[in-house]
């Protein structure tokens, strides 16, 4: 089976490495890729938001399956075009991808499916903003205001703050850009990222993970696309994990079928484990980055065959998933100024070691690898437990040099020390 992966991040690098372990995968192609993925797969530079270009490439390389990593091509309908060309595609349709592309739509689906989530309100006019803010946040007895961009924002459209002026400024900026704003009640409790491979109503959950969205130590500073993750979650009871699948993922998949937009691909359920049980924070329509790097590092089942089963409607017949014992910790190495405008063009030394996944990198004609984005590398450590996996990840990081770069030193620390409970 020849597989074309769409994307250029560490998530796609992790997908390629996991696909390469599947004996039925005979060829790997990526577009557009990065300096690291070029060592694993045949690389092509195409516009991945162009359905025509992706289909043309899939035909050119004789792909048996296309796996779409990022959300933007999915929301634009690239998966529909690939399927229309007669090629198997892992990734939801444009209609189904609205579960990430519009938070208001996701709220509608959750309400219809009877899924617990935060109380919310859409604000689409500056004239209504102040009154709406008074119904949420500290004004309503919550710990903080939660202000979200209703559109895609690469993980950076959310502000959670106890300060009303900060909440108002973020909402006003979004409204000025023509983006509706979603205000939510604050969900208190540790967060979980649950990935589910779905083909209609069949839902196959992967290991739960936890990611770290804030740029700074102790969850300080602004949101990012993700600064690290670990899997599995030693503090998450099995019965809560089963509840997340049975009372959230499966009802949502069934509701999408009922609406005539069955979800086929990776349903990412972001949850908070509150005092009342699991509640949905967000849905995404694709593998999360950096959680994917940790989850796939522990997968023993053949990934290509799993994704192909979902893409062809045969997921119900797939054998139970097998996992490595132990834990995986991913730490993101970010460029100076990230999540603001990142410094780029710096030489990256030590980036070709085992456990290093590339994201914002390019290889110059002379072979030198330089930074080209905000999140430059993901470093994945594995071990018998979280303590060992953390030590492995940070040992690898010690051998990498990138001027001005930064990373968080506390990825998975609370869990490793037993300081998270539900």
Number of domains in the coordinates? 4
* CATH architecture descriptor name of the largest domain: 2-Layer Sandwich
Strand content: 25-35%
Give the biggest beta sheet. Answer: 5 strands, parallel
Mean pLDDT: 97
CATH uppermost class of the largest domain: Alpha Beta
| Amino- and carboxy-terminal Cα gap | 43 Å
Strand order of the largest sheet: 3-2-1-4-5
* Count of β-strands: 22
Which secondary-structure class do the elements indicate? alpha+beta
Considering the protein shown, what is the CATH homologous superfamily of the largest domain? ATP-grasp fold, B domain
Rg over CA atoms, rounded to whole Å, is 21 Å
Poorly predicted regions are none
Shape: globular
Fill in the CATH topology of the largest domain: D-amino Acid Aminotransferase, Chain A, domain 1
Write the topology of this structure.
Blueprint: E1 2-7, H1 10-20, E2 27-32, E3 42-43, H2 51-60, E4 65-68, H3 71-75, H4 78-84, E5 88-90, H5 98-101, H6 103-113, E6 120-123, H7 129-133, E7 145-149, E8 158-161, H8 164-176, E9 181-184, E10 191-199, E11 202-205, E12 210-211, E13 214-216, E14 220-223, E15 228-231, H9 238-258, E16 264-274, E17 277-284, H10 291-297, H11 303-311, E18 327-334, E19 356-358, E20 361-363, E21 369-371, E22 375-383, H12 386-398, H13 413-416
Parallel strand pairs: 1-2, 1-4, 2-3, 4-5
Antiparallel strand pairs: 6-9, 7-8, 7-9, 10-11, 10-16, 12-15, 13-14, 15-18, 16-17, 18-22, 19-22, 20-21
Helix pairs in contact: 1-10, 2-4, 6-9
């Amino acid at each position: 089976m020849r597989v074309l992966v769409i994307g250029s991040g560490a998530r796609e690098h992790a997908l390629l490495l996991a696909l390469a372990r599947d004996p039925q995968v005979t060829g790997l192609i990526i577009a557009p890729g990065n300096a690291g993925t070029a060592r694993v797969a045949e690389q092509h530079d195409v516009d991945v938001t162009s359905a025509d270009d992706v289909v043309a490439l899939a035909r050119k390389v004789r792909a048996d399956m296309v796996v779409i990593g990022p959300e933007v091509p999915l929301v634009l309908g690239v998966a529909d075009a690939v399927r229309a060309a007669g090629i198997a595609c892992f990734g939801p349709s444009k209609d189904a991808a609205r579960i990430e592309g519009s938070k208001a739509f996701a709220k509608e689906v959750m309400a219809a499916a009877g899924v617990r989530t935060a109380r919310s309100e859409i604000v689409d006019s500056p004239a209504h903003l102040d009154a709406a803010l008074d119904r949420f946040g500290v004004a309503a007895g919550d710990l903080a205001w939660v202000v979200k961009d209703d559109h895609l924002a690469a993980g950076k459209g959310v502000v959670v703050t106890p300060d009303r002026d900060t909440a108002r400024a973020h909402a006003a900026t979004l409204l000025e850009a023509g983006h509706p704003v979603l205000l939510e009640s604050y969900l208190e409790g540790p967060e979980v990222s649950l990935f589910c491979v779905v083909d209609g109503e069949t839902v196959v959950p992967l290991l739960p993970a936890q990611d770290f969205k804030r740029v700074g130590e102790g969850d300080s500073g602004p949101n990012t696309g993700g600064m690290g993750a670990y899997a599995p979650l030693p503090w998450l009871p099995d019965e809560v994990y089963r509840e997340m699948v049975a009372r959230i993922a499966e009802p949502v998949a069934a509701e999408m079928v009922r609406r005539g937009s069955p979800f086929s691909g990776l349903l990412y359920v972001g949850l908070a484990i509150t005092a009342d049980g699991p509640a949905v924070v967000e849905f995404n329509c694709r593998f999360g980055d950096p959680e994917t790097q940790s989850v796939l590092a522990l997968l023993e089942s053949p990934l290509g065959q799993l994704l192909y089963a979902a893409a062809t409607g045969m997921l119900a017949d797939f054998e139970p998933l097998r996992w490595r014992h132990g834990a995986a910790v991913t730490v993101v190495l970010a460029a100076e100024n990230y999540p603001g405008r990142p410094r780029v063009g710096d030489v990256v030394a030590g980036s070709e070691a085992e456990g290093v996944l590339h994201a914002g990198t390019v290889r110059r004609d002379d072979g030198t690898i330089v930074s080209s984005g905000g999140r430059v590398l993901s470093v994945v450590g594995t071990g018998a437990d979280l303590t060992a996996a953390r030590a492995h990840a940070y040992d690898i990081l010690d051998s990498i040099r990138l001027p001005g770069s930064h990373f968080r030193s506390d990825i998975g620390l609370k869990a490793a020390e037993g300081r998270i409970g539900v």
